[in-house]
Structure formats: C-alpha cells, structure tokens
Amino acid sequence: MANIRDIAKAANVSVTTVSRVLNDHPYVSEEKRRAVLETMKVLKYNKNLNAVTLSKGKTQIIGVVLPYIHQPFFSLVLNGIARRASEEGKTIMLFQTNYEEEKEREALEKLKGKQLDGLIFCSRALSQADIQMYGQHGPVVLCEESEHMNCVYMNHYESIVTGVRHLRRRGYERIGLTLNRNSGRNTNERVRALKDSGFHDEDIFYGALNMEDGEEIARELLLLGNDGPDALIITNDTVAAGIYNEFRRRGKKIPDDLALLSYDNQHIAQSLEISSVQLPLLEMGEAAYSLLSIPKHKKIELPFTLIQREST
Amino acid sequence: MANIRDIAKAANVSVTTVSRVLNDHPYVSEEKRRAVLETMKVLKYNKNLNAVTLSKGKTQIIGVVLPYIHQPFFSLVLNGIARRASEEGKTIMLFQTNYEEEKEREALEKLKGKQLDGLIFCSRALSQADIQMYGQHGPVVLCEESEHMNCVYMNHYESIVTGVRHLRRRGYERIGLTLNRNSGRNTNERVRALKDSGFHDEDIFYGALNMEDGEEIARELLLLGNDGPDALIITNDTVAAGIYNEFRRRGKKIPDDLALLSYDNQHIAQSLEISSVQLPLLEMGEAAYSLLSIPKHKKIELPFTLIQREST
To answer: Cα separation of A145 and A154, whole Å?
Structure first.
C-alpha cells in the first residue's frame, strides 16, 4: 500500500504537508490540500489505523525522556523519533533528565495531565513499575526490554556473550568491562553476561561515559600492568577513544597491550579502527515512535552487528 | 551573589528543586521547599530578575528550532539551552526542521499562539525579516548575528581570516573551503572572508555536512591532483574525518598532500590530530537561553580558538 512518502512524492509536496492534511492541521494551502487528497484517491491510500489512533490525541505532542542529549546513542534515537514524529505532524517535548527521578516524574505527570499524547523513555532512573503506573493515562514506550510495557530493545546479554566469544577467538583470556551506571536493566544484563562467561567484578569499571572517563580508566589500567585485563568491552566509542588516545600517548599499542571492543560504531570508532558493536539506533527511535500507537503489549528486539577492526 | 547552584548545594537538594521553589512549581515536598527558602535567606539570595521575567510566561515551555539533532554543533547548543532551561524548571519543545521553512513557521505560529514562552533559532531557512515579524508575540533569539533580534554568535568572517593567516604561516598557498549550505548568514560570511583573502569560488565545495560528504570531496580532490587546493578549511570535524580517512585509504598523507583545518573541535578532531576552530557551543546555548529574558536588543559575540594539531 502507498505510504505518505509515496503520496508526498506523487503530489510533489513535503511529507509534512501530507501528514498535516491527514491530521487536519492548519498552515496548509488549499491548493496543496487538494493536490494531496487527489493523490490519495489515485493511489488508493488508506490512512494508517495506528496513525489514526495516535492522531486522535489532543496535543499532537510526544514526550521524549533521555538522560543526556549530547551522546551519540541518545541523539540518534531521538533523531529517529523526531523523523517519524515530523512525518505525522507531531512535535517533540524534550526531557533531559541527567537521570534525576524527579525530572522523569515531571514528564509522566504531563502525560497524566493530558499535555502529551505519548511518552518515550530512551533510558530511565525510575523503576519500570513506577513508570508503568502511568500507562493508564496514555501510551508509554521503553527503549529496553519490559514484560508489561511496549518496548524496543537489543539483547545486551547476547551482545556481551558475542563480544566475549569474539575476543576469546582472537586469543584474549582476561576480559573486562566498562559501564556508565552501576544500575539499570541494560547494565545489569551486561554484567550478568560477563560473569556467566567466567569473569570477575574486579575487571568491571563504572562511571565510564565520556572520553575523559576513558583516559582515566586507561591510566588505572597502566598502573595495573599485567594484573589487569588484556581486553575490554567498552560502554561506547567515545570512552574507547579516550582509552585509545591515552595508551597511544604512553607509547602503548592497541591491541597488543589492550584489545578494545566498544558499542555504537560511531565515526570515531571507524576512524581509529576500533572494533564496535553496531546498534540500529535510528531504527530504535522510529520503532519506539510506532509502538506508541499499538494498544496491546508488543516487544521489538533489534539485531546488533559486531564490526571487527584493528583493535581486536 | 549566590546562584541557584550554591543554594542547591547548601540545602542539599537538586538544582531542579531550587528552581521549582523559585517558580512555585508543583512536585516539591514541603520539607524540601522549606529547606530551600531557609537557605535562600541565609545566603541572601535575590531572585534573578531576568529569570522572573521569563517565568511569568504561561506555558513554561521554550521552543528550540534546529535543522538536525545528530550534529555535534546543534546537539551541544541544544544541550546548553536544556541545561539552563532545566535549572529554571522550563521544558523544551523541539523543532527539527531539516531546513524546511514550513516547519520553522510552525514553531513561530506556536509562539504567536502563546503555546511557547520563547523561541530560539539555532539555525534557519526563513529570512531574518520573516522571523522578526513574530517578535511582537514573544521573545525570539538567533544563534547568528542580527541587527534587530537578540542574538549570540561567533564572528565567522574573522574565524576564516584567522584560519587563512594560520595556514599561510604554515606555508600553504592555495586554500579552499567546504560548506554545508550555499546560503545562510554564517555561510555567506565564511565565503566573503575567503574571497577577501584572495581565493576563488572554484575551491569552495558545498553540500559538506557528514563523513560521507567528506569522503566524496576527498575523491574529487584526488582527481584534481595538483590543480586543487593544498589546504582546506572544513565545515566541521566529521567532514574533516571523512577527508582524512579517504586520503589515508589512498595512501596519501595529511598534511603533506592536503592540510586540514576544521570547525567544532570535537573528540574526533582530537583523536585524528586535526587542527580545529573551537567554538564555545554549550555557552552559546546557555547565552541564547538567557537572551530570551532581555527585553531590549542585545548581541553577544562569543570568542573562538584555533587549536593547532598535526594536520596543519
């Protein structure tokens, strides 16, 4: 069936215009409106029922909760959400929480107060149970696995198991892990997978989010010398770059002195030849948006890909 | 004078809580409220008058217009805005426009309809005149120089002149430029500066925004051989990284075969040893937010710093 992109193309208007017409939104010229309606007839377009459900919302505003904006992971997920929202003429209200529960609650209260048509949690500090209580007031979607709420996620346990298998195949024996938080479902899954693989708490480094954190962990590792891991699975590419740079400055070699496997596969991993687990983050955002319109509980697991480079 | 960060620290509550108390915002426990008010007395805190002006807005919502979220430049400016907004208990409504005028107009109409307390343009497709007409409905701030609207900006003309001087001092004679758009005030300033420095249109490459664009420009340059520039001033670090990677793949050397000077000084420039013009982007976002509360026309010019590395 034709989608609104096809309509836009055939009617020679923007996707935004088509979605405006579908949602009886103002600021569309009569001429464009007629062009779109004509084209919809020609292409036998049936308005997407999910889209209808959502468009019945009063505010046309979708809330997005995330801890930090300037992190590739979150800005890409946000980008995916924004792309789909824009197609449907929705606006995004942004809640940058820095993992403060009270800011997450503020977003939930806006949903309860019908100031939002739906709410997407890219990550959370509140418990899933706390968030779920607000589900009665409007659609809520999580970007992590949930048994009760609509969610889109990747299998973090499997991603670590895959990383460990890859590193062992490459001859590394003592594998460590860096993480940002010491709580959160995805974090717990990664830790569980590392321990199930036979590795120990002492090689897990927390508080690893930025390049500076990576440089600090690198200095710790250099002090440990041979008492440290010979390979690290790392929070994200930025932390990995910090470790890479600090090792290089100290005349150490990657992967000879330390093998690096990171997450997100951003440009910096490509440029520094760091192996990285690629997650479909734009798709995660788009899926999260689409899940807002699905009434019954639905889980979407997204695949990940391990991209090997010189660092392992 | 003590600011709300000091209060938060002394009262042992979050900055958000302090700003909530200042703005008579709900969801603050009576106990915390009393602690904050007490501390304010002790520290002789006088509520910032600008903050008051803004907090009189009905919606407590600030609109932010930007073309793309997942660009270090824009996500950092957005981050600065979000930080200040959060301190004052404001929420951000995000308009990702991809430079579509009709989406920019949608944001302006929300300001006119009093659905926003203020609007910040990180970049624009509409003319300044079009935007200015809405100034009567509420505060509008631009992140580029304007003679009529409050604005925070850096001097793009000067930044190019500085870059050219640096490259000439390093012995480069034919200097080219890459840009994203072929319109927009900042773009025009950069082009004007390059031409005033004696260089030519033929060495200006447009449509340079992402790493892939950089790789494509690199391939063009490799075809040009000695008929091309020996140094490039580049849109941003990501494009520079694309050029760097493609040259490296073809066995070419930076800076011997081509000198690179880029903008933004993000992690990737640091990691690849690419010289870059550092802009205080977080500060730009924070300044843009503060300008929303200043009734009379005010311009803030932010300084830039050229950071030299191995690529020049």
So the answer is: 8
The band of B46, judged by pLDDT with boundaries at 50, 70 and 90, is low
Nearest CA in chain A to B116: A93
CA-based torsion, B279, B280, B286, B288: positive or negative: negative
Q: Which residues pair with A91 in a beta bridge?
A: A61
The string of pLDDT tens digits covering residues B180-199 is 988 888 999 999 999 999 99
B93 touches chain A (CB under 8 A): yes
* Cα–Cα dist A4/B76, whole Å: 32
CA distance B161 to B300: 20
- Between CA A62 and CA A73 the distance in angstroms is 19
* Interface check A244 vs B, CB under 8 A: yes
Question: Any idea what the Cα angle at residue B222 is, between residues B221 and B224, rounded to 5°?
Answer: 60
Q: CB–CB of B91 and A86 under 8 A?
A: no
CATH architecture of B156-278: 3-Layer(aba) Sandwich (3.40)
Higher pLDDT, B142 or A184: B142
Is A156-278 in the same CATH topology as A61-154+282-303?
Answer: yes
Place of tokens 């899954």: A189
Q: Of the CATH numbers 3.40.50.1110, 3.90.1750.20, 1.10.8.60, 1.10.260.40, which one belongs to the domain with range B4-56?
A: 1.10.260.40
- CA–CA separation, A190 and A183 (whole Å): 11
Indicate yes or no: CB of A75 within 8 angstroms of CB of B94: no
Every domain of chain B and the residues it spans: 4-56, 61-154+282-303, 156-278
| 3 state DSSP class of B120 | strand
Instruction: Supply the pTM of this predicted model.
Output: 0.76
- B144: which 2 tokens? 């580029």
Is ipTM > 0.90 here? no
Does domain A61-154+282-303 match CATH 3.50.50.60? no
Q: Render the burial of B260-280: b for 16+ CB within 10 Å, e for the rest.
A: bbbbbbbbbbbbbbbbbbebb
